[in-house]
Amino acid sequence: MLPGTQDLIQIRTINDVRGNLSFIESGQDIPFKTERIYYLHGVPQGAERGGHAHKQLKQLLIAASGSFDVVLDDGKNKNTITLSDPRQGLLIESMVWRELKNFTEGAVCLVLASEHYDEADYFRNYDDFLIATQQQ
Ligand code: TYD
Question: Which atom of ligand 1 approaches the CA of 50 most closely?
Fold first, then answer.
């Protein structure tokens, strides 16, 4: 199965004349407890983020503002998803290589993560990642 498309979740959103309020409750709306939140902002035109996979970490990515593309690769299949709706979240399981590109000016990528930051959880080398996926 292609990684990504099936992992787009609709974030509960309350809309009234004052605008939208979207909310996520750990363990209810997403299948992990959020231990860390970070966000990418001020990404210059043409810059790419990501370029790694995680051994254990699960994440939810949200285009809180603007849009960007997420290329997902599980070692077998590749898929590109454009995030542009703050009411949608892209769930990325562990062992999925991701690249983020084509950020619009002012775009903000909000990330909910299942673990604290741990450099040892990263695959930063694509060949090492591929070897690990073949051993699974
Ligand atoms: P990285 O995960 O490579 O960013 P991206 O995937 O967006 O390109 O992280 C960039 C740098 O920031 C790297 O030195 C690790 C550091 N970092 C933290 O210290 N804490 C964090 O929670 C994250 C996500 C990164």
Answer: 6
